[in-house]
Amino acid sequence: MKLGYFFKLCQRGLVGWLVGWLVGWFVLLLKETVLLDHGVFPCNLRYSEIKAFRLALIQLHVSAVKSDNLQRACGLVREASAKGAKLVALPECFNSPYGTQYFKEYAEKIPGESTQKLSEVAKECSIYLIGGSIPEEDGGKLYNTCTVFGPDGALLAKHRKVHLFDINVPGKIQFKESETLSPGNSFSMFDTPYCKVGLGICYDMRFAEMAQIYGQKGCQLLIYPGAFNMTTGPAHWELLQRGRAVDNQLYVATVSPARDEKASYVAWGHSTVVNPWGEVIAKAGAEETVVYTDIDLKKLAEIRQQIPILSQKRCDLYGVEMKK
């Protein structure tokens, strides 16, 4: 073999190795870019930098005394923070009994007494606090409103319940929130160093389109403060959570008040966390308690890679069919 020909082969081998190395890095970069585009990674973090974080759901026993509700809620927030929770959530109507007859009596402006307490305890504990919901008065209208506060006590988001709870199940339950409440007209999301969170309140969870939009906008966790009842709770509470989680490949958490058999509206309880595979990973009973779980975004990323429905959607077809 001539020496010149030998050198040419070496050069070709070196070039081939270099090209292969560059292609490998390009594919890896492309994969991470696609995952970022589909909301797998929060805050532009790469896969190796994603860490699990602790979520706490406070299933609070709610009484007719607002000051007691606020005091107990703040105490349980402190307890959750002491146990390592970085994101803490309270239930729907955590400061008042739930019912159309109570909304006007307990309604507050925002900022007001309840939200001031939430802001203070979020700052004291240096956590992200989802303040369940309270009856809000604004401009002569009443809303069922969730507020979110950051570790500095600043208001990060305010979500007004979009879908009002108007149902009639003959012989079991009839309820009409629209008798006293007005609906919100916007979706609410907020960013944390851990993940992006989408908010809904109770009945909002029944509407798959809302969760789908949150997923498309990059949310990895949906939180629904809610108060399903003794009719809809055993039938649909967990079912809906698992459906929203699997459909959108994200974590879903629900936060209920504790069950009070003497209340005019008896809540189902069973605050729950479901992972993107549809598995229940944490669940309360009916009593007052705090539910803890670790939200692992590596698990979410793995599921989205294994079953890549986010990149397989036929949005070009869905819109056409809807117009037929």
From TrEMBL:
One of its GO terms (cellular component) is centrosome. Keywords: Hydrolase, Membrane, Transmembrane, Transmembrane helix. The keyword Transmembrane helix applies. Pfam families: CN_hydrolase. CDD domains: nit. PROSITE patterns: CN_HYDROLASE. The chain crosses the membrane at residues 12-30. Gene3D superfamilies: Carbon-nitrogen hydrolase. Residues 53-297 form the CN hydrolase domain. GO terms for biological process: asparagine metabolic process; glutamine metabolic process; oxaloacetate metabolic process. Its EC number is 3.5.1.3. One of its GO terms (molecular function) is omega-amidase activity. Belongs to the carbon-nitrogen hydrolase superfamily. NIT1/NIT2 family. This is omega-amidase. It comes from Ficedula albicollis (Collared flycatcher). The lineage of its organism: Eukaryota, Metazoa, Chordata, Craniata, Vertebrata. The gene is NIT2.
